[in-house]
Amino acid sequence: QVQLVESGGGLVQAGGSLRLSCAASESIFSINAMGWYRQAPGKQRELVASITNGGSTNYEDSVKGRFTISRDNAKNTVNLQMNSLKPEDTAVYYCNARRWTGTTIRDYWGQGTQVTVSS
Predict the structure, then answer these.
(1) How many Cβ atoms sit within 10 Å of the Cβ of residue 29?
(2) Are strands 46-52 and 57-59 parallel, antiparallel or unpaired?
(3) How confident is the model at residue 28 (pLDDT cuts 50, 70, 90)?
(4) Torsion angles phi and psi, residue 113, rounded to 5
(5) What angle do CA 99, 89, 93 make, to 5 degrees?
(6) Average model confidence (pLDDT) for the chain?
(7) What is the share, in percent, of the chain residues with pLDDT greater than 70?
């Protein structure tokens, strides 16, 4: 069971920056992929960015060029640097860890951290 704890959310004006961090309870080197999802009120949870244990990254189109995901295997953390924030980035952001073996996929989630961008 992987436990994930997010930090770094808050209130920021449009155009500002925030850095989210996710601390895992065990070595993230053994986790196939980690990512950040977000869920705005009345909307489905969506993938924002992900990174594999090989370092490959993937971003949702609306955040490309503004957000950067990174992982620190030594500290067992995954970070999301968010620049040029927009009001539409307002959501609860969740850290995700995904393990897969053959056809079995297991997802682990953090409790979420609120990001609010004011116009």
Answers:
(1) 10
(2) antiparallel
(3) confident
(4) -135, 135
(5) 35
(6) 96
(7) 100
Three-state DSSP at 111 gives coil
CA distances from 31 to 10, 63, 71 (A): 28, 24, 11
DSSP 51-106: EETT--EEE-GGGTTTEEEEEETTTTEEEEEE-S--GGG-EEEEEEEEEEETTEEE
CB atoms within 10 A of CB 97: 24
CA-to-CA distance for 109 and 4, rounded, in angstroms? Answer: 6
- Output the six-digit token pair for 85: 């924030």
User: Minimal CA–CA distance to 88: which of 41, 19, 34, 51?
Assistant: 41
**DSSP letters for 4-32:** EEEE--EEEETT--EEEEEEESS-GGGSS
Cα 98 from Cα 96, distance rounded (Å): 7
| pLDDT at residue 1 is higher than 90 | no
Q: Which of 2, 7, 16 is nearest to 94 (CA)?
A: 7
